[in-house]
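Bumping with the actual sequence this time:
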Amino acid sequence: MARRKYFSHDTLGGGSFVDRIRHTGYLHGAHRWAVGENLAWATHGQSAPRGVTELWMKSPGHRANILNGTFREIGIGIVGRAPVRGVTQPAATYATDFGAKS
């Protein structure tokens, strides 16, 4: 996202975050599964992990993913730049994918 300058759960080609997770092979052979995704980007102090976590915990949907007891695994990606053009101050973009499968 940061490299291609967009910010969305869906790819520029129209694929969903579930499509991306499936592409990694994570769901291969699973009979049942559940996945969720939290995205964030911020600048300055809010771009540190603590700041982003505080933002997520104030958002009902993001908080629900973090506290969802169904999820047993997490993948975290962080890049040190913004996913939009024109941001000149320090920034970070986060993607967290949550999952459970059986």
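The tokens above came from a reply further down the thread. The chain has a mean pLDDT of 96.
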